[in-house]
Specification:
Length: 197
Amino acid sequence: MVVTKTFVWAHLGKAGGDTVAAVLSLFPEIMEYADDVDSREKHARFADRPELVAGRQRVLCIRRLPSWQLSYSVHKSRYGGAPDYRPRPMDSRETMITAGVPDRHLNRFVEGGRAWPDRWLRVENLIDDLLGLLEEHHVEVTPKKLKKIRAIRPQNVGYNYERSVSSWFTDEMISRMYAHNPVWHQAEQLAYGPSPQ
């Protein structure tokens, strides 16, 4: 989590969070609090820290569901998950489609769709969305800082896998994945606007 004077950004895993933290770290003048990027605490929910969230705009990243699910499953197969963080077998396509893991992760931040963030940062447009956020909060982005921001490469993506969603899922599979993750589906409509899946 990163808390500034006017907004608080929560770190939904596998949604560009380390890149967001790297960009925001370039603006120490607006920072009030930031979890260490190597800490498990960096994934704290808004509800976990009400005293830091109160009165500030709530910001959360989002990415398209099939891309998130694939990234999450690959990450888990390489690095495991809580509590033991031991690598696990790669999820089958059917498990990725039907298990509802994305909604379980997102629900922690949006309380099942009852507490949407005030602003979304879309992974596919991350730097431009971040710059828009900073502009909205009247944060000065000097030409030197803008150059640094544009030079930041995506963070925490140090493993290779086939990222093309169509190599993993058919259109029918993707439709079923959205059906099994209705909160994520609604979040996408809020963040990206209504559009075909």
